[in-house]
What we know:
Order of helices and strands: HEEHEHHEEHEHEHEEEHEHEHEHHHH
CATH class of the largest domain: Alpha Beta
Helix content: 25-40%
Radius of gyration: 21 Å
Bound molecules: flavin-adenine dinucleotide, iron/sulfur cluster
Distance between the termini: 52 Å
Number of domains: 3
Number of helices: 14
Amino acid sequence: MIHITDKSQCCGCTACVSVCPKRCIRMTEDDEGFLYPKVDAVACANCGMCEQVCPELCSDDVRTPVQVYAAKNRNEEIRMASSSGGIFTLLAEKIIDCGGVVFGARFDANWDVVHDYAETREGLSAFRGSKYVQSRVEGCYQKAKSFLQQGRKVMFTGTPCQIAGLKNFLRKDYDNLLTVDVVCHGVPSPKVWQIYLTEIVRENGKNSVLPHRIDKKTEIESIDFRSKSTGWKKYSFALTLSEETADGEKNTVLLSTNFYKNPYMNAFLLDLNLRLSCYNCPAKGGKSGSDLTIADFWGINEVLPDFDDDKGISLVLVYSEKGQYWLNGLNFEYETTDFQSGQKKNRAILYSCRKPVNRSFFFRQLKQNGSVIQAYDDCSSTALNKRVRRFIYRKLGI
Ligand SMILES: Cc1cc2nc3c(=O)[nH]c(=O)nc-3n(C[C@H](O)[C@H](O)[C@H](O)COP(=O)(O)OP(=O)(O)OC[C@H]3O[C@@H](n4cnc5c(N)ncnc54)[C@H](O)[C@@H]3O)c2cc1C
Ligand code: SF4
Ligand code: SF4
Ligand code: SF4
Protein backbone atom coordinates (compact mmCIF):
# COMPACT_ATOMS: atom_id res chain seq x y z
CA MET A 1 0.00 0.00 0.00
CA ILE A 2 0.98 3.62 -0.52
CA HIS A 3 2.76 5.07 2.46
CA ILE A 4 4.24 8.53 2.06
CA THR A 5 7.49 8.85 3.98
CA ASP A 6 9.10 11.38 1.66
CA LYS A 7 6.69 14.06 0.51
CA SER A 8 8.81 14.91 -2.50
CA GLN A 9 7.74 11.49 -3.83
CA CYS A 10 4.05 12.35 -4.16
CA CYS A 11 2.72 14.83 -6.72
CA GLY A 12 -0.84 14.55 -5.36
CA CYS A 13 -2.35 13.24 -8.58
CA THR A 14 -4.91 11.03 -6.77
CA ALA A 15 -4.44 8.01 -9.06
CA CYS A 16 -4.03 5.82 -5.95
CA VAL A 17 -7.24 7.14 -4.38
CA SER A 18 -9.13 6.65 -7.64
CA VAL A 19 -8.00 3.06 -8.19
CA CYS A 20 -8.35 1.68 -4.66
CA PRO A 21 -11.02 -1.04 -4.72
CA LYS A 22 -11.57 -0.71 -0.98
CA ARG A 23 -11.92 3.08 -1.12
CA CYS A 24 -9.68 3.24 1.89
CA ILE A 25 -7.40 6.09 0.74
CA ARG A 26 -8.27 9.71 1.28
CA MET A 27 -6.37 12.88 0.54
CA THR A 28 -5.49 14.86 3.65
CA GLU A 29 -4.03 18.34 3.89
CA ASP A 30 -0.58 18.88 5.42
CA ASP A 31 0.68 21.96 7.24
CA GLU A 32 1.68 23.64 4.00
CA GLY A 33 -1.76 23.10 2.50
CA PHE A 34 -0.92 20.33 0.01
CA LEU A 35 -2.95 17.12 -0.19
CA TYR A 36 -1.36 13.70 0.41
CA PRO A 37 -2.96 10.24 0.42
CA LYS A 38 -3.59 8.52 3.70
CA VAL A 39 -4.51 4.84 3.83
CA ASP A 40 -6.84 3.28 6.36
CA ALA A 41 -4.58 0.29 7.03
CA VAL A 42 -7.37 -1.71 8.67
CA ALA A 43 -9.56 -1.56 5.58
CA CYS A 44 -6.67 -2.09 3.13
CA ALA A 45 -6.65 -5.47 1.30
CA ASN A 46 -2.97 -5.17 0.33
CA CYS A 47 -3.81 -5.58 -3.35
CA GLY A 48 -0.95 -3.25 -4.38
CA MET A 49 -3.00 -1.44 -7.02
CA CYS A 50 -2.25 1.98 -5.54
CA GLU A 51 1.47 1.41 -6.02
CA GLN A 52 1.01 0.12 -9.57
CA VAL A 53 -0.66 3.35 -10.72
CA CYS A 54 1.54 5.85 -8.89
CA PRO A 55 3.46 7.99 -11.42
CA GLU A 56 6.16 8.58 -8.82
CA LEU A 57 6.81 4.83 -8.62
CA CYS A 58 6.35 3.96 -12.30
CA SER A 59 7.70 6.80 -14.35
CA ASP A 60 8.05 6.68 -18.15
CA ASP A 61 11.00 7.84 -20.25
CA VAL A 62 11.60 11.34 -21.58
CA ARG A 63 10.26 11.65 -25.16
CA THR A 64 11.15 14.00 -27.99
CA PRO A 65 8.18 15.53 -29.82
CA VAL A 66 7.64 14.45 -33.41
CA GLN A 67 6.47 17.91 -34.46
CA VAL A 68 6.75 21.39 -32.95
CA TYR A 69 4.64 24.45 -33.73
CA ALA A 70 4.39 28.10 -32.79
CA ALA A 71 0.66 28.80 -32.92
CA LYS A 72 -2.04 31.35 -32.21
CA ASN A 73 -5.81 31.20 -32.17
CA ARG A 74 -7.27 33.47 -34.89
CA ASN A 75 -10.03 34.54 -32.50
CA GLU A 76 -8.44 37.59 -30.80
CA GLU A 77 -10.95 37.70 -27.96
CA ILE A 78 -10.26 34.12 -26.97
CA ARG A 79 -6.52 34.52 -27.40
CA MET A 80 -6.53 37.58 -25.11
CA ALA A 81 -8.46 35.60 -22.48
CA SER A 82 -5.99 32.70 -22.71
CA SER A 83 -2.55 32.61 -21.11
CA SER A 84 -0.59 31.77 -24.26
CA GLY A 85 -1.88 31.52 -27.82
CA GLY A 86 -5.31 30.08 -26.99
CA ILE A 87 -4.67 26.64 -28.45
CA PHE A 88 -6.36 24.88 -25.53
CA THR A 89 -9.73 26.41 -26.52
CA LEU A 90 -9.40 25.48 -30.20
CA LEU A 91 -8.71 21.83 -29.38
CA ALA A 92 -11.42 21.74 -26.73
CA GLU A 93 -14.02 23.26 -29.08
CA LYS A 94 -13.26 20.61 -31.67
CA ILE A 95 -13.84 17.86 -29.10
CA ILE A 96 -17.08 19.49 -27.90
CA ASP A 97 -18.30 19.87 -31.49
CA CYS A 98 -17.84 16.09 -31.89
CA GLY A 99 -20.09 15.49 -28.88
CA GLY A 100 -17.15 15.03 -26.53
CA VAL A 101 -16.24 16.06 -23.00
CA VAL A 102 -13.36 18.29 -21.90
CA PHE A 103 -11.68 18.13 -18.49
CA GLY A 104 -9.76 21.10 -17.11
CA ALA A 105 -9.10 23.28 -14.07
CA ARG A 106 -11.50 26.00 -12.92
CA PHE A 107 -12.17 28.09 -9.82
CA ASP A 108 -14.86 26.89 -7.41
CA ALA A 109 -17.16 29.14 -5.39
CA ASN A 110 -14.35 29.82 -2.87
CA TRP A 111 -11.78 30.56 -5.57
CA ASP A 112 -9.99 27.30 -4.89
CA VAL A 113 -8.93 25.46 -8.04
CA VAL A 114 -10.63 22.19 -8.93
CA HIS A 115 -10.72 19.86 -11.91
CA ASP A 116 -14.06 19.49 -13.62
CA TYR A 117 -15.53 18.74 -17.05
CA ALA A 118 -17.52 20.69 -19.66
CA GLU A 119 -19.79 19.49 -22.43
CA THR A 120 -20.51 22.84 -24.07
CA ARG A 121 -18.39 25.58 -25.68
CA GLU A 122 -19.66 28.04 -23.04
CA GLY A 123 -18.46 25.69 -20.32
CA LEU A 124 -14.88 25.99 -21.60
CA SER A 125 -14.46 29.60 -20.50
CA ALA A 126 -13.98 28.54 -16.86
CA PHE A 127 -10.96 26.43 -17.88
CA ARG A 128 -9.35 29.21 -19.89
CA GLY A 129 -6.27 30.81 -18.39
CA SER A 130 -3.59 29.40 -16.10
CA LYS A 131 -4.40 29.24 -12.41
CA TYR A 132 -1.20 29.12 -10.40
CA VAL A 133 -2.52 26.89 -7.63
CA GLN A 134 -2.59 23.09 -7.44
CA SER A 135 -5.99 21.89 -8.62
CA ARG A 136 -7.93 19.15 -6.82
CA VAL A 137 -8.56 16.29 -9.23
CA GLU A 138 -11.09 14.63 -6.94
CA GLY A 139 -13.26 12.13 -8.86
CA CYS A 140 -12.30 13.31 -12.37
CA TYR A 141 -10.29 10.21 -13.32
CA GLN A 142 -13.28 7.95 -12.65
CA LYS A 143 -15.61 10.34 -14.48
CA ALA A 144 -13.29 10.41 -17.49
CA LYS A 145 -13.15 6.61 -17.52
CA SER A 146 -16.90 6.38 -17.43
CA PHE A 147 -17.25 8.77 -20.43
CA LEU A 148 -14.58 6.80 -22.31
CA GLN A 149 -16.42 3.55 -21.69
CA GLN A 150 -19.61 5.11 -23.02
CA GLY A 151 -17.68 5.81 -26.23
CA ARG A 152 -17.66 9.62 -25.76
CA LYS A 153 -14.58 11.53 -26.93
CA VAL A 154 -12.67 12.84 -23.95
CA MET A 155 -10.01 15.54 -23.85
CA PHE A 156 -8.25 15.59 -20.49
CA THR A 157 -6.02 18.58 -19.74
CA GLY A 158 -3.84 19.29 -16.74
CA THR A 159 -0.31 19.32 -15.42
CA PRO A 160 2.02 16.56 -16.66
CA CYS A 161 1.72 14.65 -13.36
CA GLN A 162 -2.08 14.78 -13.57
CA ILE A 163 -1.93 13.33 -17.07
CA ALA A 164 0.57 10.67 -15.95
CA GLY A 165 -1.75 9.79 -13.06
CA LEU A 166 -4.76 9.53 -15.38
CA LYS A 167 -2.95 7.30 -17.87
CA ASN A 168 -1.72 4.99 -15.11
CA PHE A 169 -5.18 4.88 -13.58
CA LEU A 170 -6.80 3.93 -16.91
CA ARG A 171 -4.17 1.23 -17.56
CA LYS A 172 -5.13 0.97 -21.23
CA ASP A 173 -5.12 3.18 -24.30
CA TYR A 174 -8.43 4.56 -25.47
CA ASP A 175 -8.76 5.74 -29.09
CA ASN A 176 -11.36 8.26 -27.92
CA LEU A 177 -9.04 9.89 -25.36
CA LEU A 178 -6.90 12.95 -26.14
CA THR A 179 -4.49 13.98 -23.39
CA VAL A 180 -3.02 17.48 -23.33
CA ASP A 181 -0.68 18.70 -20.63
CA VAL A 182 0.57 22.21 -19.98
CA VAL A 183 4.26 22.76 -19.41
CA CYS A 184 4.43 23.22 -15.67
CA HIS A 185 7.18 24.71 -13.59
CA GLY A 186 5.36 23.82 -10.37
CA VAL A 187 2.16 24.32 -8.40
CA PRO A 188 1.71 26.55 -5.34
CA SER A 189 -0.16 25.46 -2.25
CA PRO A 190 -3.94 26.04 -2.17
CA LYS A 191 -3.60 27.18 1.45
CA VAL A 192 -1.05 29.86 0.55
CA TRP A 193 -3.41 31.01 -2.19
CA GLN A 194 -6.38 31.31 0.20
CA ILE A 195 -4.31 33.22 2.75
CA TYR A 196 -3.18 35.60 0.03
CA LEU A 197 -6.75 36.15 -1.21
CA THR A 198 -7.94 36.91 2.29
CA GLU A 199 -5.06 39.36 2.69
CA ILE A 200 -5.69 41.31 -0.47
CA VAL A 201 -9.37 41.58 0.25
CA ARG A 202 -8.47 42.86 3.72
CA GLU A 203 -5.74 45.14 2.36
CA ASN A 204 -8.32 46.87 0.29
CA GLY A 205 -10.21 47.90 3.32
CA LYS A 206 -13.01 45.40 2.94
CA ASN A 207 -13.73 43.47 6.16
CA SER A 208 -12.25 40.21 5.21
CA VAL A 209 -12.41 38.12 8.30
CA LEU A 210 -14.52 35.55 6.84
CA PRO A 211 -16.93 33.16 8.33
CA HIS A 212 -16.80 31.38 4.98
CA ARG A 213 -13.39 32.48 3.72
CA ILE A 214 -14.57 35.32 1.49
CA ASP A 215 -16.66 38.07 3.08
CA LYS A 216 -20.17 38.07 1.70
CA LYS A 217 -20.22 41.85 1.24
CA THR A 218 -16.95 41.99 -0.62
CA GLU A 219 -17.02 39.56 -3.45
CA ILE A 220 -14.33 38.54 -5.83
CA GLU A 221 -15.75 38.91 -9.31
CA SER A 222 -12.82 37.64 -11.35
CA ILE A 223 -9.19 36.61 -11.08
CA ASP A 224 -6.72 36.60 -13.93
CA PHE A 225 -3.20 35.39 -13.15
CA ARG A 226 -2.10 36.30 -16.65
CA SER A 227 -3.89 39.45 -17.73
CA LYS A 228 -2.50 40.61 -21.07
CA SER A 229 -3.67 44.22 -20.62
CA THR A 230 -0.01 45.14 -20.06
CA GLY A 231 1.23 42.72 -22.73
CA TRP A 232 1.82 38.95 -22.82
CA LYS A 233 5.46 39.15 -21.78
CA LYS A 234 4.94 41.71 -19.00
CA TYR A 235 1.62 40.29 -17.92
CA SER A 236 -0.31 41.39 -14.83
CA PHE A 237 -2.08 39.69 -11.98
CA ALA A 238 -5.60 41.16 -12.05
CA LEU A 239 -8.40 40.79 -9.58
CA THR A 240 -11.82 42.43 -9.62
CA LEU A 241 -13.62 42.99 -6.34
CA SER A 242 -17.16 44.19 -5.89
CA GLU A 243 -18.45 45.76 -2.73
CA GLU A 244 -22.02 46.26 -1.70
CA THR A 245 -22.55 49.84 -0.52
CA ALA A 246 -24.90 50.87 2.29
CA ASP A 247 -27.65 51.74 -0.21
CA GLY A 248 -27.41 48.34 -1.88
CA GLU A 249 -25.39 49.51 -4.91
CA LYS A 250 -22.30 47.66 -6.12
CA ASN A 251 -18.85 49.25 -6.38
CA THR A 252 -16.33 47.45 -8.53
CA VAL A 253 -12.58 47.74 -7.98
CA LEU A 254 -9.94 46.40 -10.34
CA LEU A 255 -6.63 45.55 -8.67
CA SER A 256 -3.94 44.94 -11.22
CA THR A 257 -0.19 44.65 -10.67
CA ASN A 258 2.61 43.64 -13.00
CA PHE A 259 3.54 40.07 -12.11
CA TYR A 260 7.01 41.07 -10.95
CA LYS A 261 5.53 43.46 -8.39
CA ASN A 262 3.02 40.99 -7.00
CA PRO A 263 4.16 39.09 -3.87
CA TYR A 264 2.13 35.94 -4.66
CA MET A 265 3.45 35.77 -8.21
CA ASN A 266 6.98 36.50 -7.05
CA ALA A 267 6.83 33.72 -4.46
CA PHE A 268 5.58 31.41 -7.25
CA LEU A 269 8.22 32.47 -9.76
CA LEU A 270 10.96 32.19 -7.14
CA ASP A 271 9.66 28.66 -6.39
CA LEU A 272 9.08 29.41 -2.70
CA ASN A 273 5.53 28.07 -2.42
CA LEU A 274 5.65 24.98 -4.66
CA ARG A 275 4.79 21.38 -3.86
CA LEU A 276 7.86 19.39 -2.84
CA SER A 277 7.45 16.97 -5.78
CA CYS A 278 7.87 19.88 -8.20
CA TYR A 279 11.58 20.10 -7.37
CA ASN A 280 11.93 16.57 -8.70
CA CYS A 281 9.09 16.29 -11.19
CA PRO A 282 8.22 12.76 -12.34
CA ALA A 283 6.34 13.75 -15.49
CA LYS A 284 8.14 16.50 -17.42
CA GLY A 285 9.67 16.22 -20.87
CA GLY A 286 6.97 14.02 -22.33
CA LYS A 287 7.19 11.46 -19.50
CA SER A 288 3.49 12.00 -18.81
CA GLY A 289 2.59 10.09 -21.98
CA SER A 290 0.39 12.97 -23.23
CA ASP A 291 -0.53 13.32 -26.91
CA LEU A 292 0.16 17.05 -26.91
CA THR A 293 1.97 19.49 -24.65
CA ILE A 294 1.13 23.19 -24.76
CA ALA A 295 3.17 26.06 -23.34
CA ASP A 296 4.13 29.68 -23.71
CA PHE A 297 6.51 30.12 -26.61
CA TRP A 298 9.01 32.21 -24.65
CA GLY A 299 11.78 33.41 -26.96
CA ILE A 300 9.45 33.60 -29.99
CA ASN A 301 10.70 37.18 -30.53
CA GLU A 302 14.10 35.70 -31.35
CA VAL A 303 12.99 32.50 -33.13
CA LEU A 304 10.18 33.93 -35.28
CA PRO A 305 10.09 37.70 -34.61
CA ASP A 306 7.46 38.40 -37.29
CA PHE A 307 5.06 35.95 -35.64
CA ASP A 308 5.25 37.68 -32.25
CA ASP A 309 2.65 40.40 -31.54
CA ASP A 310 2.93 40.25 -27.72
CA LYS A 311 -0.63 38.93 -27.46
CA GLY A 312 0.44 35.36 -26.69
CA ILE A 313 2.00 32.59 -28.74
CA SER A 314 1.59 28.92 -27.89
CA LEU A 315 4.32 26.37 -28.19
CA VAL A 316 2.72 23.09 -29.26
CA LEU A 317 4.67 19.85 -28.87
CA VAL A 318 3.18 16.88 -30.71
CA TYR A 319 3.97 13.47 -29.23
CA SER A 320 1.57 11.17 -31.07
CA GLU A 321 -0.34 10.66 -34.30
CA LYS A 322 -3.54 11.18 -32.36
CA GLY A 323 -2.25 14.57 -31.17
CA GLN A 324 -1.47 15.57 -34.76
CA TYR A 325 -4.88 14.32 -35.92
CA TRP A 326 -6.70 16.66 -33.52
CA LEU A 327 -4.51 19.61 -34.51
CA ASN A 328 -5.16 19.15 -38.22
CA GLY A 329 -7.69 21.59 -39.61
CA LEU A 330 -7.84 23.83 -36.52
CA ASN A 331 -8.50 27.50 -37.24
CA PHE A 332 -5.09 28.72 -36.09
CA GLU A 333 -2.13 30.56 -37.50
CA TYR A 334 1.02 28.55 -37.12
CA GLU A 335 4.66 28.16 -38.05
CA THR A 336 6.53 24.88 -37.90
CA THR A 337 9.69 25.02 -35.83
CA ASP A 338 12.00 22.62 -33.97
CA PHE A 339 12.24 21.41 -30.38
CA GLN A 340 15.59 23.06 -29.77
CA SER A 341 14.16 26.51 -30.59
CA GLY A 342 10.99 25.85 -28.59
CA GLN A 343 12.67 24.77 -25.40
CA LYS A 344 15.64 27.15 -25.42
CA LYS A 345 13.96 29.85 -23.28
CA ASN A 346 11.64 27.47 -21.43
CA ARG A 347 13.58 25.45 -18.86
CA ALA A 348 10.39 24.10 -17.32
CA ILE A 349 9.79 21.84 -20.34
CA LEU A 350 12.64 19.53 -19.38
CA TYR A 351 14.00 20.52 -15.99
CA SER A 352 12.57 20.76 -12.50
CA CYS A 353 13.26 23.96 -10.64
CA ARG A 354 15.70 23.91 -7.75
CA LYS A 355 14.32 23.98 -4.24
CA PRO A 356 15.22 27.44 -2.87
CA VAL A 357 17.24 27.43 0.33
CA ASN A 358 14.63 29.68 1.96
CA ARG A 359 11.54 27.60 1.08
CA SER A 360 11.13 26.32 4.67
CA PHE A 361 11.78 29.84 5.93
CA PHE A 362 8.92 31.08 3.73
CA PHE A 363 6.49 28.51 5.16
CA ARG A 364 7.74 29.16 8.73
CA GLN A 365 7.22 32.90 8.38
CA LEU A 366 3.79 32.27 6.86
CA LYS A 367 2.80 30.09 9.79
CA GLN A 368 4.09 32.65 12.25
CA ASN A 369 2.55 35.79 10.72
CA GLY A 370 -0.33 34.41 8.64
CA SER A 371 0.71 36.71 5.81
CA VAL A 372 1.95 35.76 2.35
CA ILE A 373 2.96 39.36 1.70
CA GLN A 374 5.05 39.43 4.88
CA ALA A 375 6.55 35.96 4.31
CA TYR A 376 7.55 36.92 0.79
CA ASP A 377 8.99 40.23 2.02
CA ASP A 378 11.02 38.40 4.66
CA CYS A 379 12.41 36.06 1.99
CA SER A 380 13.01 38.71 -0.63
CA SER A 381 15.16 40.74 1.70
CA THR A 382 17.82 38.02 1.43
CA ALA A 383 20.75 38.81 -0.82
CA LEU A 384 20.09 35.84 -3.08
CA ASN A 385 16.57 36.90 -3.90
CA LYS A 386 17.63 40.48 -4.47
CA ARG A 387 20.02 39.13 -7.08
CA VAL A 388 17.30 36.97 -8.65
CA ARG A 389 14.92 39.92 -8.76
CA ARG A 390 17.54 42.15 -10.35
CA PHE A 391 18.13 39.39 -12.92
CA ILE A 392 14.39 39.19 -13.76
CA TYR A 393 14.14 42.99 -14.01
CA ARG A 394 17.19 43.13 -16.28
CA LYS A 395 15.69 40.44 -18.53
CA LEU A 396 12.49 42.42 -18.77
CA GLY A 397 14.38 45.64 -19.40
CA ILE A 398 12.84 47.43 -16.39
C1 LIG B 1 0.65 25.75 -12.65
C2 LIG B 1 1.07 26.06 -14.06
C3 LIG B 1 2.41 26.31 -14.36
C4 LIG B 1 2.79 26.60 -15.67
N1 LIG B 1 4.12 26.81 -15.94
C5 LIG B 1 4.49 27.06 -17.23
C6 LIG B 1 5.86 27.28 -17.56
O1 LIG B 1 6.73 27.25 -16.68
N2 LIG B 1 6.19 27.50 -18.86
C7 LIG B 1 5.24 27.50 -19.84
O2 LIG B 1 5.60 27.70 -21.01
N3 LIG B 1 3.94 27.30 -19.57
C8 LIG B 1 3.54 27.09 -18.28
N4 LIG B 1 2.21 26.88 -18.01
C9 LIG B 1 1.26 26.73 -19.13
C10 LIG B 1 0.79 28.01 -19.77
O3 LIG B 1 0.68 29.02 -18.78
C11 LIG B 1 -0.56 27.84 -20.47
O4 LIG B 1 -1.50 27.30 -19.56
C12 LIG B 1 -0.54 26.92 -21.64
O5 LIG B 1 0.41 27.38 -22.55
C13 LIG B 1 -1.91 26.84 -22.31
O6 LIG B 1 -2.23 28.09 -22.82
P1 LIG B 1 -3.41 28.35 -23.86
O7 LIG B 1 -3.30 29.80 -24.23
O8 LIG B 1 -3.42 27.34 -24.95
O9 LIG B 1 -4.73 28.06 -23.05
P2 LIG B 1 -5.25 28.60 -21.68
O10 LIG B 1 -6.69 28.86 -21.83
O11 LIG B 1 -4.44 29.66 -21.11
O12 LIG B 1 -5.00 27.31 -20.76
C14 LIG B 1 -5.93 26.67 -20.04
C15 LIG B 1 -5.43 25.27 -19.77
O13 LIG B 1 -4.65 25.26 -18.58
C16 LIG B 1 -5.22 24.31 -17.68
N5 LIG B 1 -4.97 24.77 -16.33
C17 LIG B 1 -5.14 26.02 -15.83
N6 LIG B 1 -4.80 26.05 -14.54
C18 LIG B 1 -4.44 24.80 -14.19
C19 LIG B 1 -4.03 24.18 -12.98
N7 LIG B 1 -3.90 24.87 -11.86
N8 LIG B 1 -3.77 22.86 -13.00
C20 LIG B 1 -3.90 22.13 -14.12
N9 LIG B 1 -4.27 22.65 -15.32
C21 LIG B 1 -4.54 23.97 -15.33
C22 LIG B 1 -6.70 24.30 -18.05
O14 LIG B 1 -7.31 23.13 -17.62
C23 LIG B 1 -6.61 24.37 -19.57
O15 LIG B 1 -6.28 23.12 -20.08
C24 LIG B 1 1.81 26.62 -16.70
C25 LIG B 1 0.46 26.39 -16.39
C26 LIG B 1 0.09 26.11 -15.09
C27 LIG B 1 -1.37 25.84 -14.80
S1 SF4 C 1 -3.17 -1.84 -1.35
FE1 SF4 C 1 -5.14 -1.96 -2.45
S2 SF4 C 1 -6.69 -1.82 -0.86
FE2 SF4 C 1 -4.76 -1.18 0.07
S3 SF4 C 1 -4.77 1.01 -0.14
FE3 SF4 C 1 -3.70 0.22 -1.93
S4 SF4 C 1 -5.28 0.00 -3.48
FE4 SF4 C 1 -6.33 0.24 -1.53
S1 SF4 D 1 1.78 10.51 -6.62
FE1 SF4 D 1 -0.41 10.19 -6.98
S2 SF4 D 1 -0.65 7.97 -6.99
FE2 SF4 D 1 1.35 8.39 -6.07
S3 SF4 D 1 0.96 8.47 -3.88
FE3 SF4 D 1 0.80 10.56 -4.61
S4 SF4 D 1 -1.38 10.86 -5.06
FE4 SF4 D 1 -1.04 8.66 -4.91
S1 SF4 E 1 6.14 20.40 -11.68
FE1 SF4 E 1 5.73 18.26 -12.06
S2 SF4 E 1 5.11 17.46 -10.08
FE2 SF4 E 1 4.89 19.66 -9.96
S3 SF4 E 1 2.75 20.01 -10.53
FE3 SF4 E 1 4.00 20.27 -12.36
S4 SF4 E 1 3.92 18.28 -13.33
FE4 SF4 E 1 3.27 17.97 -11.23
